Amino acid sequence: MNEVSSLTRARAGRPTREQAQARHNELLDAALDHFLDKGFELATIEAIAGAVGMTKRTVYAKYPDKVSLFRAALNLAVERYSVTPEQIAETDCGDIEQTLVRIARLRIRQVMTPNGLKLQRILYTESYRFPDIFLIAYERGAMQTVKFLASVLERETKAGRLAVPDAEVAANLFMSMVVSGPVRIIVSGKVFSDEELERRISDAVRLFLNGALRR
Fold first, then answer.
1. Which residues contact 91 (CB under 8 A, 6 or more apart)?
2. Higher-confidence residue: 140 or 188?
């Protein structure tokens, strides 16, 4: 009887899978905040563990070193704050100019969220140390938008409304021209008003289309 009671108590004290996953995500969130605040070099496993009430041993049981914890935190952030395929598809309204405006607005406003800013800042500040992290963020984030945009540009070219020789190249150019510029400014600390942002997006989209329209 005592043995059964002990086993029951042990099981009762064991966290569920959902609770364990929640604690794990809490650890990765704290790690992302700490890496952003201190930078990779000055960040410590001890401080990260302390922020969530864990021991260093518990953290090291999951991540053998600081590099693996950094990459895990970054991967979670990319997954969590990337726009979904459904959100991207909803930008297509049939009108090419308005569709491009909606795509740009979706991407830029995602970066303007507190956690979106954290992700972009850590990508910029640590890319010299981890040159592959931009590729990871692109493949798991921006690539979906680029592929969707390329399909839209290809459709408009076949319909005779645009003259885009390489839709994927044009889609990447659009992202660099219309999205990346404002994103870099926002990450540096500039706060755009809604009117400023909308005007910037609209002007950039018109410039892009001016070069892409069939003459």
1. 99, 102, 103, 106
2. 188
- At 7 the pLDDT is 41
CB contact set of 179 (below 8 Å; sequence gap of 6+)? 104, 107, 108
Sequence ranges of the domains in the chain:
2-79, 83-212
Q: What are phi and psi of 15, to 5 degrees?
A: -70, 150
- The CATH superfamily of 83-212 is Tetracycline Repressor, domain 2 (1.10.357.10)
Give the CA angle between residues 122, 123, 124 to the nearest 5°. Answer: 90
Q: Are 213 and 170 in contact (CB under 8 A)?
A: no
Q: What is the DSSP secondary-structure string of 25-72?
A: HHHHHHHHHHHHHHHHHH--HHHHHHHTT--HHHHHHH-SSHHHHHHH
Q: What is the pLDDT of residue 63?
A: 95
Calpha distance 176→81 (Å, rounded): 19
What pLDDT shows up at residue 13?
Answer: 62
Tell me: the pLDDT tens digits for 110-119?
888 888 888 8
Q: What is the pTM of this model?
A: 0.81
Q: Do the domains 2-79 and 83-212 sit in the same CATH topology, yes or no?
A: no
| CATH superfamily of the 2-79 domain | Homeodomain-like (1.10.10.60)
**Residue recorded with tokens 């041993």:** 57
d(CA 52, CA 62): 15
